[in-house]
Each structure stands twice: as structure tokens, then as C-alpha cells.
Design brief:
Its EC number is 2.7.4.6. The chain is 39% helix and 20% strand. The chain is of the alpha+beta class. It binds ribavirin triphosphate and magnesium ion.
Length: 141
Amino acid sequence: MAIERTLSIVKPDAVAKNVIGKIYDRFESAGLKVVAAKMKQLSRAEAEGFYAVHAARPFFNDLVNFMISGPVMIQALEGEGAILKNRDLMGATNPKEAAAGTIRADFADSIDANAVHGSDSAENAAIEIAYFFASSEVYSR
Ligand code: RTP
Ligand code: MG
């Protein structure tokens, strides 16, 4: 399988719960490497731009308000099949439907406060990594 990169965000709920390290452990235990990382308080404009694909959806305002409710931890992950592997580690969007042992099953509280974001395709992974990181800030290893 090809080595890929994906964009991951530990959302404000999980940062507030102090489980950044526990979530990073899931990535590392699955063979994904953190190749870029920063903690950031997103502005409303940054959050709206990041989730622009959802701008017309009824949940867009709630999503943006939640994503700016506190700092987030943003990272690029690298590894074999990283995009799908990260989505598998995350579990379903709604934690009530997330499989046992997934990040959302273990750390998320609701469909809004669902602990993590992960890119859903190779095309979006490239766009999302570039949204937050200059290429000089990504340390392939
Ligand atoms: P994410 O983009 O954050 O990784 O989540 P996802 O791919 O699993 O879900 P997506 O469909 O991209 O939706 C983005 C975020 O919007 C919220 N959402 N709310 N109320 C609803 O029906 C609803 N649907 C989605 C979730 O917080 C989701 O993570
Ligand atoms: Mg998504």
C-alpha cells in the first residue's frame, strides 16, 4: 500500500479533556507518524474556510461554533494507507454509531463534540494539510 499523508485535528472537546496524548498513541500504535503539528485557536474565518464544503448544510453554524470553542491540536499523519487508516481509527461521525475501540467511541460525547477530524480523500488531505502547514513545516520521515 502507498505511503500517504492525512490531516488530523484533535477537536476542542478532546483538547479540553486532556486526551491529546491518548489520541496520539492510537495513531502511533497503528503505524502512523506525526510529521507536522501545531496547537491553534481557530478564528471563525479559518473554521468556515476549513469546512467550506459543508457551508450549505444545516449543521454548519453549530460545527463552526464548536470548532472555535477552544484550541485544537492539528497534525499531519504519514504512513501506509494513512487516510483510510485514520478514518478507521476515528470511527463513525456519530459516536453512538462508532465501533468499540475507536477514538470517537472512547473519547467523543456527541455528533458535534466528536473528538477528531480526519481527511476523507487523498484530494482533500492535500488541500487540508496545505490549509494549515507550509511544506517546510512538514517533516516526512
Ligand atoms: P470530520 O470532517 O470532522 O472528520 O467528520 P466526518 O468526516 O466524520 O463528518 P462530516 O460529514 O465531514 O461532517 C463534519 C462534522 O460536522 C458535524 N456533523 N453534524 N448534525 C449532523 O447531522 C451532523 N453531521 C455532521 C460533525 O461534527 C462532523 O464531524
Ligand atoms: Mg468530514
